């Protein structure tokens, strides 16, 4: 039996389509400080390997927006900026190049602020998630519905936000009406699904630690998915976001909404540092590795400067540089091979990991590989400098706009 899904409009979050029959995507949220670019990117790669299709990062301060300017061009998955109280952070996140915003209508309430952000999103072709949260509902709605959070109040919150968006001709929207109370959350989403045709982002907010949090979120999200409601999902657990990504992926597999595969392949987006055509190497790697049917996480990275570090959580990876491929296991370079042998060597090392485990593979690292890799890395850094993606120019724009707003 297959689930008949509710028909909706479609929004495009970077390369990931949401709604209108697109595969249901899994989201999670980083727990690092967004201003810590390297730690945030490492977590993004880790959750992408665990099954996240889209990642949300908080943008709560100017340094976070500046971090996003450096994270977005190097992230393997689209990035959504989470905005709570300050609409200027939404504008700064847009300057940073994010793929989508999440606005909480309970927290940003001034119509002129909402419209300014929506207008800018319209001009840039960036969608917004209206993220209604039962715990931070607009006080006027809370009062209107008898000093309690009801499904009607949450849906009305989303409708009010939509009115502001429509006032500036903006319609590129997905919506969530999350609550920590599961029956309330289910009721709110059902009502919303009957009221609008926008794609819906499902979640039980603050579900809590494992195992109870997992259970709560699964009942809420799973019930709605089984009814055909929901286009993208997030588990909000008090746990490592890797657990959230894994749970999302497993739930979709359980319901037959995502194909089960043994291989988790992630590829970097190939930014200004790329030394190889990442897409074609990733495709060749996928074809070769899928045939092996080994449960393994593999990263294909465009450069040796950041590749092994960004994808250090992957079991195995390859990063390109100066006509060679650096093979790495859990972020440690184990071999340096000619570029045209990268995929073949990837297959050999995947077999080694399958037979001998990670420790066994690390024990077979070529003598001198780490040193050779470091020399290539330094040479590339010397060639292209520290700012190969011109993130500095975006950061300047963010600073200028924020300084003007503050004066
Ligand atoms: Fe990261 Fe290098 Fe790929 Fe750019 S080319 S995204 S820095 S691995």
Tell me what you see in this structure:
There is one protein chain. The protein contains 14 helices and 15 strands. The protein is α/β, with parallel strands linked by helices and 407 residues long. The chain folds into two domains: 11-254, Dihydropteroate synthase-like (TIM Barrel, Alpha-Beta Barrel); 263-384, 2-Layer Sandwich (Sulfite Reductase Hemoprotein, domain 1), CATH 3.30.413.10. The strands form three sheets. The protein has an eight-stranded parallel β-sheet. A five-stranded mixed β-sheet has the order 11-12-13-14-15, with helices on both faces. A two-stranded antiparallel sheet has the order 1-2. A hairpin with a 2-residue loop joins strand 14 (324-329) and strand 15. Helix 3 runs antiparallel to helix 14. The longest helix is centred in the C-terminal third of the chain and has 22 residues, at 342-363. The termini are far apart. The model has no long low-confidence stretch (mean pLDDT 94). It binds iron/sulfur cluster. Iron/sulfur cluster (SF4) binds at residues 74, 268-271, 273-274, 301-303, 305-307, 310.
CATH class of the largest domain: Alpha Beta
Specify the CATH homologous superfamily of the largest domain. Dihydropteroate synthase-like
Shape: globular
The residue-averaged pLDDT reads 94
Please indicate the count of domains: 2
Oligomeric form of this entry?
single chain
**Widest sheet: strand order?**
8-7-6-5-4-3-10-9
Quote the CATH topology of the largest domain.
TIM Barrel
Q: What's the number of extended β-strand segments?
A: 15
CATH architecture of the largest domain: Alpha-Beta Barrel
> What is the percent of helical residues?
40-55%
Topology pattern, helix = H, strand = E: EEEHEHEHEHEHHEHEHEHEHEHEEEHHH
Tally of separate helices: 14
**Main β-sheet, in a few words?**
8 strands, parallel
Low-confidence stretches: none
Which structural class fits the helix and strand makeup?
Answer: alpha/beta
Ligands in the model, by name, code or SMILES, are: iron/sulfur cluster
What is the CA-based Rg, rounded? 22 Å
* Strand residue percentage: 15-25%
């Amino acid at each position: 039996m297959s689930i008949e899904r509710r028909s909706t409009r479609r929004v495009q979050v970077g390369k990931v389509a949401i709604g209108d029959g697109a595969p249901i995507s899994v989201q999670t949220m980083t727990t690092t400080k967004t201003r810590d670019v390297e730690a945030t990117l490492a977590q993004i790669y880790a959750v992408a390997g665990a099954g996240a299709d889209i990642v949300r990062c908080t943008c709560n301060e100017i340094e976070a927006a500046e971090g996003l300017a450096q994270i977005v061009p190097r992230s393997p998955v689209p990035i959504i900026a989470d905005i709570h109280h300050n609409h200027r952070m939404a504008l700064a996140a847009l300057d940073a190049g994010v793929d989508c915003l999440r606005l909480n209508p309970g927290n940003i309430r001034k119509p002129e602020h909402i419209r300014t952000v929506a207008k800018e999103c319209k001009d840039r072709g960036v969608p917004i998630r209206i993220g209604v949260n039962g715990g931070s509902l607009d006080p006027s709605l809370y009062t209107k519905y008898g000093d309690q959070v009801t499904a009607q109040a949450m849906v009305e919150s989303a409708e009010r936000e939509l009115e502001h968006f429509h006032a500036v001709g903006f319609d590129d929207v997905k919506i969530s009406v999350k609550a920590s109370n599961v029956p309330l959350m289910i009721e709110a989403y059902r009502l919303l699904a009957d009221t609008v045709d926008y794609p819906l982002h499902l979640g039980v907010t603050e579900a809590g630690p494992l195992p109870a949090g997992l259970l709560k979120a699964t009942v809420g999200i799973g019930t709605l998915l089984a009814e055909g409601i929901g286009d993208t999902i997030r588990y909000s657990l008090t746990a490592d976001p890797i657990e959230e990504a894994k749970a999302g992926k497993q739930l979709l597999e359980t319901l037959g909404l995502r194909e089960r595969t043994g291989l988790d392949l992630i590829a970097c987006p190939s930014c200004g540092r790329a030394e190889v055509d990442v897409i074609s190497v990733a495709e060749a790697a996928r074809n070769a590795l899928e045939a092996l049917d080994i449960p393994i996480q593999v990263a294909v990275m465009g450069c040796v400067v950041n590749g092994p570090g960004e994808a250090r959580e992957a079991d195995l990876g390859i990063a390109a540089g100066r006509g060679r491929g650096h093979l790495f296991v859990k972020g440690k370079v184990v071999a340096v091979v000619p570029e045209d042998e990268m995929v073949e060597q990837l297959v050999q090392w995947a077999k080694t990991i399958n037979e001998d485990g990670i420790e066994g593979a690390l024990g077979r690292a070529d003598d001198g590989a780490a040193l050779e890799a470091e020399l290539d890395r330094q040479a590339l850094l010397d060639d292209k400098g520290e700012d190969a993606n011109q993130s500095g120019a975006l950061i300047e724009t963010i600073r200028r706009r924020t300084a003007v707003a503050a004066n």
